[in-house]
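Hallway conversation turned thread

IA: we were arguing at lunch whether anyone had actually written out bis(5'-nucleosyl)-tetraphosphatase (symmetrical) end to end. Turns out nobody had. So, for the record, here is the sequence (185 residues) and right after it the structure tokens. Reply here if something looks off.
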Amino acid sequence: MLGIIEDRFSQLSEHRQQHILRVAKMMKELAAIHHLSPTNAQLAAMGHDLAREMSRDVLTREAKRLGLELSSPEREEPVLLHGPVAALWLQQANIGEPEVWEAIRYHTTAAPRLSPLAKALFIADGIEPGRRFETRTHLEHVAKEKSLDEAYVLMLKETMKYLESRRLKPHPLMIEALRLSEESS
């Protein structure tokens, strides 16, 4: 691992480290199946949750320090900033490339017109074997045996269902991503 990734990773809880390693394994598999850069897949996986355990206040301060403009959903739920903050850490350290930073930035909220790498990370984060929900194995099958696009739409729907069950609002980017993905399929 490289500099900031190794440093930040070592500060995370064992639970978070294991989650990241499971996502990295899933990304390795998806990269091989869907002809994605294995290097970019691993960087995206290893970087995606580096800021996930920061408190709401610290995360908000770090986002502002990095120059991020906070949207209304991010002000209400600062945990949504952990992807953008981690992406900017890697970008400022010149680790990875735009495709990696995009994947990390949007791995929680999704977004319209994401690259295949970003879709793969959104999916891998949701279907890694530590996740427990009824359709996980079906989603994994679709991601590995069918298409990233189909798995992405299913993962968006599953995520929205989960958010509704917790009385949380989906991010506007997620709503738009689902709308555009359904229109194009």
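OS: looked through it. The mean pLDDT is 96.
IA: good, adding that to the notes. Residues 162 and 168 are 9 Å apart (CA to CA).
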